[in-house]
Amino acid sequence: MPCPDLGALRASLDAPDGAPADARDHARACPSCSDTLAELQRNAELAALAVALTAPSAPPAPAQVEAALARFEQRRARRAATAATAATALATPATPAATALATAATPAATAAAAQPAPSPSVGRAPGREGSPPGDSAGGAVHTPPVPLARRRLARLGARTRAAAAAMVAALVLAGLVATPAGRAAAGSFLAQFRSQRFQVLSLDPNQTSQVGDVLAELVDTGVFSGRAFQDSGFGEPQVAADRAEAARRAGFPVPVVDPAALPRGIERAPQRILVSPAREARLTFDRDRALDYLRAHGRPDAQLPERYDGTQLVVQVPAVVVQQFAGRDGGPALLVGKAGTLGLGTEGGASLEELREVVLDLPGLPAETVAELRAIGDWRNTLPLPVPTDEVRWNPTTIEGAEAIDFADPTGRLHALLWQRNDHIWGVAGVVSSDEARHVANSLG
Predict the structure, then answer these.
(1) Which pTM value belongs to this model?
(2) CB-hemisphere CA count at 13 Å for 196?
(3) Contacts by 96-103 with C-beta closer than 8 Å and gap 24+?
């Protein structure tokens, strides 16, 4: 019989043992179909594991369900109240508060008029946000894993928008490094935080839930606001024609993956190369809302200096290049990534250290997690990596002499390596063994 298609081979895996399965019988005598069927079997097992990881280790108790529902209703009520307050303010612009807001917002509104307007699908950014527009370029991927909305320049085509954004970025950078004051400001910012090493923070399910609840409430109540919370990711992936084009877009060399280092069953050349451009994300701190949050959570005497208000947490998200290699069934089986380093700083009245203390002192955070974070001596160069202990196993290791972290799912079928070297973050991940991932990583030079 002729070789069956992928659909027939996949369906044969679901056939009961006693039922006839012509495709499965054919695969026993056909080496090519046998390999493909094995790949499909492995993908089916991994898909089942991925689905299983979304389920809790044990059903929640009725009290936990009620508590979760209560938190949800509180968040929904807060959002409704915020929306109602905003609508009232807009409807009564003559009030003193509205007049003050309008006066304060005038410089920002003037600046915004010269900036690209956000996409209607995203909504307008808050007036205090100050988030710069993101770049857009041809070849953008609008499919998972990270589909993102674009910002647009009114009345300009895609090519003109990209050229204008590049010109603005070049002018800003030229002005920054062309003057002594600019160079001093840049040096001051980069001295605040620059990832140079990783430190894993192991979180059990309860700690993960606590951290998630606190962070969600900070956003819901407006303690921190910014476009980063409205976008669905940190960079829009774009398909590059080859490594040279990817390097031009990312601003750093893209490594050649030695075909001899690839595991059996993985295609020798990348199926595609994705580039996520570097970008800057800004989160604005609201002192009054932070005080409201603290007082509502058992800190009636909480105090914060007025100069903290409006401080922006500036995150410099690096460019990322991912080479995606396919398995026999055409699906992604191995990812090889390289990125710049993450930068973090503040602009405004509060320093990064002061804002860090505010966050670490928030009620509701797990005491063990806060203690781990405070114990990081070189916190300005150490990037904490929260890892849920019920979903991921990890071990410290080395790659070509560099400190690395080896991650795996609980069954050991999925593996990933993460390390930093020469001011870049590197990663290898896929449906491979730990030794296979290490072999690829060591071949990258």
Answers:
(1) 0.62
(2) 9
(3) 101/127
